[in-house]
Structures are given as C-alpha cells and as structure tokens.
Amino acid sequence: MLPNFSLTRALLLLMTLSASAAFGLDAGSSSTTNTECLVYIGTRASGNGKGIYLCRLNTTTGTLTSPKLAVETTDPAFLAIHPNHHFLYAVREAGGFGGTPNGAIDAFAIDPTTGKLALINQQNSGGQGPCHLAVDRSGQCLLAAHYGSGSVTAFAIHEDGSVGGVGDLKQHSGSSADPKRQTGPHAHSVGFDLANHRAFCADLGLDKLFVYQFEPETASLTDNDPPFVSLAPGAGPRHFVVSPDGRHLYVINEINSTITIFNYDASSGALEETQTITTLPVKFTGTNTTAEIAIHPNGKFLYGSNRGHNSIAVYSVDQRTGNLTSIEYQSTLGKTPRSIGIDPTGNFLLAANQGSNNLVVFRINPKTGRLAATGQTLEVPAPVCVTFLSQP
Predict the structure, then answer these.
(1) What is the pLDDT of residues 306-344, one digit of tens each?
(2) Own/partner pairs for 6-9, CB < 8 Å, 24+ apart?
(3) Does this model's pTM top 0.85?
(4) CA–CA separation, 362 vs 80, rounded Å?
(5) What is the rounded CA–CA span in Å between residue 203 and residue 227?
(6) In the prediction, which pLDDT does 99 show?
(7) Which of 56, 257, 354, 389 has its C-alpha lying 20 to 30 A from 2's C-alpha?
C-alpha cells in the first residue's frame, strides 16, 4: 500500500524547515557554515572503490577535505539526494540481487552531523544493469534506468526514506545504427521536467528520448503523446539536463560526441530539436565518448565531459533560443572524466576522473563561464559520480 502522501508532504516540509538549524555538514565534529557543502562520490569496485565517499567543499575558496568512506557498498554507479536532504539513493550495477540477474537500489539515511550514510533498505531494481536514477521533485517517487535490459522502473518512496517495490516498468525495444553499441535498447538516464508532470528517459541503444506522463502519488508512467523524439542515427544519447527556466532540454550523445538542444513545450510534452553541436575541437582525430552534462544554476553556461580527449567542453547559452556557442575545451587534468558536477552556488565545477583516480576542482568565471584549475586535486578510487548536499 502506498503511504498517505498528504501526511508525507507535511512531514517533509517540517523536516526541511528544522534541518536548517540542525544540519551540520562537516565530515568531522564541527558544524558547517553556509559556505560549505558535502560532496558524495560514487566509485567502482573494479578500480578499488569501496563504496560512497564524502568530502567537504568550501564554496568560497574551492578547498576540499580529504575523502572519507561514507558507507561501504558495491558499485554505486549513480547517486541522487532526496529533496528534503535527509536521504540518499544509489543504483548498484552489480547483478545477483535476491538470486536474480537484476541490480539493486540502496536507500540511505544521511547523518545530520557527520554526513555519513546508514542503510535503510535495499530493493530489487527490476532490471539488469541499472546505471542512473532520479528522485522526483515532490520526493514521493524514484525512477531507475537500466542499461542492460533497456527499461525504466518507478518506485514509491516511503515516509522513512525506504524504497518500495516496483510500481511501474517501461520496457523499451528496437535497435539503431551502430552494430556494436545499438543492437538493443540501453536506457541510460532519467529525469523530470520542472512542473513534475513528465519524466524523460534517454535510450542510448535506440537514439530516442522517451517522454512519459508521470504520477508521483502512484509511481506510474504513461506514454506521452508524442511518446518520444528521435536523435540522429548513431548519436547514442546518454545524459540530459533541463534548463533552469524549463524551456529547453540538452542531451549529451555518447557515441558521436555531440550535444543536441530541444525546445520543450511543457503543455504537451513535445520536444523540438533546434541545434546539434560537437563536444570536440575540430582538429581532434582520436577516439572519444562523452559522459556527463551539467548546466550552470544561472542557465548561462553549459558543460559536457569528453572521455578520450579528457576535457570539459564549455558553452555559452543563448538566453532567447537556448542554443549553444563553444567557448573552450578545458583539460580535466586526468583520464576518463565520467562525471562532472557544479556546486549549488555555481562557483566551482568538480571533475571525477575514473581512469586516473582523482577529483579535480575548477573555478567557474561568473562572467564568461570559463574554467580555471584551483590546484585542488584529491585521490579517489575510480570515481564515477559526484553529487552535492548543501545546507537546506
């Protein structure tokens, strides 16, 4: 049975209000100021990662504390934090959950003093190879994307932060142009529009961005009309972001190293392509795949990571059309930047280099969007996801 969501909303509101006084985000013993936030880092076991690590970022100076293990777990490929800041969720790509080949979703409670994580429950993800997840804006529902089985699952989130059983499942089917990467569906990311009325899923295997009508109270997904938009054959859509004003959606394409921009009609859920732009310099001739995409809180700058060129592509955003203009390509000072993230103040960008086992801090120029290395680099085993927790 689903929880009483009117009661849930009231409880979440009270928890969020009280958290502003009680939330100390220091990984040690002292309380956190509003110039600090926690950074959670997912790692891969194949690179000797032991689970989810945490450190503290000073959002004025860009300094990071040494990473500490927040919780031991296996292959937390992607992380998401609940809107009330009390819970964190992770997908585990490793199979074998409950005797099935499926992956798992872990729900954790965040210690308000240390930031460390305590397991609430583990749930069968309902598909193979889960690689991405997102919590809806009301905090009532969680979606997971499965690269292995090409499916999306929806789960109710209970009042205590635990994840319920599968509420809905959408199975994709078909193929696309690349004979090695696109012989079947590979759902790679999920997310929501600003109104919390629709959910999206980028499917790398099908070159499609699916659109679903979304009901958080029942954890249900219904095909939108139109149900998807197609990208160029062989593009390989991986991750996406919605602009802060909700009018545009940006998809980073893993296989052909591009970013595609769409106008978004919130009333119908329709997406209209307006531009596709490369993530690479013209003279680059090596092998590359893209990974993560991030938009600045002010909506004026956008960033995408290149694995191979080992760089961050930086763009300015036209505030009228949403289209992009290339600014620069900044080295990540490492190898295989699988994840990048912008801190809540918009002052710093962190690059997680999976191949070189390091986390690098860049200062964002507030006028131009350009990146400058701060000299802050931390050793972290095979980092694959970076997410931030600021003081409520």
Answers:
(1) 999 999 999 999 999 999 999 999 999 999 999 999 999
(2) 7/159, 8/139, 8/140, 8/159, 9/138
(3) yes
(4) 22
(5) 13
(6) 66
(7) 389
